[in-house]
C-alpha cells in the first residue's frame, strides 16, 4: 500500500528507559547529586548529548566538551552491558501482533529512533527483520522534536509524510511527528502526550480496526 507506520524504539517497542536511568544515575551519583525517576522523564526521546546536558543542568555542573564526551562514553558502556542481556521477552505486549498485522496488510514499516544503539537492541530482541527501513541516531543530525528522523523514514519508505503514522512515547517524539505532518499515536498518558492525535496506554488496547480507520475521514 501507500501507507507507512513508523515506530519509535525506546518506550514503544521495548522499555529501555530503566537501563538509561541506571546508567545516567551512576554518573549523577559519581558527580554527587541526586537524579530521580522524574528527572529521567525529561530524557525520553532526547539524544544522548542533549540528555547529558539536561542531567548536568540538574546537577548544576558545567564541563568541557572533552569531559562531556568521556562521561557520555562511560554512560554508554554501562548501558551497553544492560542491552547485551536483552532477550525477545522484553518486547512490549502486543507489539509483535501489531507488526505482523501491518505487514499482512501490506503496509511499510519503519523504525524512527534517536538511539545510536537501535540496531543492537533490535538484534537482541530478534526484531531486526521486522522493519523495512531503519532510521536511528546514527543517521540524523537533528534530534527530536525536529522531524528529520521521521521525514527520513518516510522518504526511505517512499511514502508521503501525510500517509505515515508514528508511534511515540515521548513528548519530543510527538512534536517531531506533528512537525513532519504525520498522524501521531501516543503510547502512554493522555495528560502528558497532549499533542498526539490519539493516545493508548500500550499496544494491548489498539485494534486493527482502529488502525484501518485512520485515513477514513469522518463524514459530516
Ligand atoms: C531514545 C531514548 C533516550 C535516549 C536516546 C539516545 O530516544 O528515549 O532516552 O537518550 O534514545 O539513545 P542512545 O542509545 O543513542 O544513547
Ligand atoms: Mg521513546
Automatic annotation (TrEMBL):
Return the InterPro entries for the record: B-phosphoglucomutase_hydrolase, Beta-PGM, Beta-PGM-like, HAD-like_sf, HAD-SF_hydro_IA, HAD_sf, PGP-like_dom2
Record keywords, A-Z: Carbohydrate metabolism, Isomerase, Magnesium, Metal-binding, Phosphoprotein
**Which enzyme type, at the first EC level?**
isomerase
Checking Gene3D superfamilies in the record gives:
HAD superfamily/HAD-like, Putative phosphatase, domain 2
Write the Enzyme Commission number(s) for this entry: 5.4.2.6
**Pfam families to which the protein is assigned, alphabetical:** Hydrolase (PF00702)
Catalytic reactions of this protein: beta-D-glucose 1-phosphate = beta-D-glucose 6-phosphate
Q: Which cofactor does it need?
A: Mg(2+)
- According to its UniProt record, which protein family does this protein belong to? Belongs to the HAD-like hydrolase superfamily. CbbY/CbbZ/Gph/YieH family.
Record protein name field = Beta-phosphoglucomutase
Q: From which organism does this entry originate? A: Aquimarina addita
Gene that encodes it: pgmB
Amino acid at each position: 500500500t501507500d501507507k507507512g507506520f513508523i515506530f519509535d524504539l525506546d518506550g514503544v517497542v521495548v522499555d529501555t528507559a530503566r537501563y538509561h536511568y541506571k546508567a545516567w544515575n551512576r554518573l549523577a551519583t559519581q558527580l554527587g547529586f541526586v537524579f530521580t525517576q522524574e528527572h529521567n522523564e525529561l530524557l525520553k526521546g532526547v539524544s544522548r548529548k542533549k540528555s547529558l546536558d539536561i542531567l548536568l543542568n540538574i546537577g548544576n555542573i558545567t564541563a568541557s566538551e572533552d569531559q562531556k564526551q568521556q562521561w557520555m562514553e562511560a554512560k554508554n558502556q554501562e548501558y551497553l552491558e544492560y542491552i547485551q542481556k536483552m532477550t525477545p521477552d522484553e518486547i512490549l505486549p502486543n507489539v509483535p501482533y501489531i507488526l505482523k498485522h501491518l505487514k499482512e496488510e501490506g503496509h511499510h514499516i519503519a523504525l524512527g529512533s534517536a538511539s545510536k544503539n537501535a540496531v543492537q537492541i533490535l538484534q537482541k530482541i530478534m526484531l531486526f527483520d521486522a522493519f523495512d527501513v531503519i532510521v536511528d541516531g546514527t543517521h540524523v543530525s537533528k534530534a527530536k522534536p525536529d522531524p528529520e528522523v521521521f521525514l527520513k523514514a518516510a522518504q526511505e519508505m517512499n511514502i508521503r509524510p501525510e500517509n505515515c503514522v508514528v508511534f511515540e512515547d515521548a513528548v519530543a517524539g510527538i512534536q517531531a511527528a506533528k512537525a513532519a505532518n504525520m498522524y501521531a499515536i501516543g503510547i502512554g498518558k493522555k495528560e502528558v502526550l497532549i499533542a498526539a492525535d490519539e493516545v493508548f496506554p500500550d499496544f494491548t488496547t489498539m485494534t486493527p480496526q482502529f488502525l484501518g480507520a485512520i485515513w477514513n475521514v469522518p463524514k459530516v
